Amino acid sequence: MSLFSQQALQPGVRKREVFGWAMYDFANSGYTTVVITAVFAAYFVGGVAQGAPWATLAWTASLSLSNAIVMLTMPSLGAYADLRAAKKRLLTLFTVGCVLATAALALVGPGSVALAVVLIVLSNTFYAWGESMTAAFLPELARPESLGKVSGWGWSFGYFGGMLALGLCLAYVLWAQGRGQSAAQFVPVTMLITATLYGAAALVTFALLKERAQANPAALGQSGFRASLRQLQHTFHEARQFRDFMWLLACAVCYQAGVAVVIALAAIYAEQVIGFAQQETMTLIFVLNLAAAAGAFSWGYLQDRIGHKIALASTLLGWIATCVIAALATSKSDFWYAAIIAGLCMGSSQSAGRAMAGLFAPQRQVAEFYGLWTFAIRLASIVGPLSYGLITWATGGDQRSAILSTSALFFLGLLLLIPVNLQRGRAAALQADGQTTA
Predict the structure, then answer these.
(1) Which residues contact 221 (CB under 8 A, 6 or more apart)?
(2) Which of the residues 329, 396, 410, 418 has the least number of beta carbons within 10 Å of its own beta carbon?
(3) What is the domain count for the chain?
């Protein structure tokens, strides 16, 4: 039996189209890997802000501001995309915005804190909008019983995009350091490498991915966002019908807050607490991405076999272990153990959550439901890093306490996962589409 079976796909969907969809995960992973995690985060704290006591808090506050923008806008953008069949058009717009803002980060140098903050807010906002819009294609491509594995295909392939971007940047950094260049000279070039790879890979997505949705004729004569806001208000009014989706959103806020801490602060923690050099940090993140790709791919098949809920719960236990090991690590080798576990859990937990959201989404409201999913994820991305930054600031820079406290977020996510009932949630989605569970 083929690992990439045609039977996992909806009727009429070809494998080349799924490859095009997965290429967007490949394209945008370089942004999070290089800009948010491995290179620019540590450069912002140590180079741009020049190690100021408020530097980590300024970084997390910048990410939180962008996530607040996404949180407040994405549900209505998703409803608009459903009503106007505009997922692909919006995805193109968001991609151009992120690529341009990422390239503009090359203009940031030591002391350019305001410019760095503006560009991070812009680039991360466009990135998050694009991530949500591409996720909304998943239920159109995969059969309900195969959402886990198809989501895992995309998510695992995405990590290879992150590794390619990071590998190219690492090669350039080592070359530049060999010629005596400083971070202020080589970091801007890594931003250009990342932006170029993002834009080039996304072209494959736009060439192969189809917009299968049909515009709602009743909405075409109305103001687009007015109609989308009305639809969104109706969904919130009917929220009790989708109570399992709402429990999943609450769970996601908690566990994704912890994931956001790792994404935004792994490089800062490795360098400032454990003592990694910049090239060691980039190697660490490279290996973390390799583990995450393996986790996302293998867990995609596992969750379709043992159930999404059990698969997600197992990753949350792994995250708790990661936080404890990282907080107690006294050597680089100890921290490597935490990083590998984090990688395996990162890909699998994020892919599992995306697949569960697709299972609970009515077909005619899929972009809207993924907009609500993004609302939860971006709220988490505010709560996690900002709480970490505040704890670090309040304890006089004690990042070990901050990373240990992050384990509580994963534990709370585990508790909120308990009430989720997959069968009941799927039945609610089918009922909303006028179907039955039979």
Answers:
(1) none
(2) 396
(3) 1
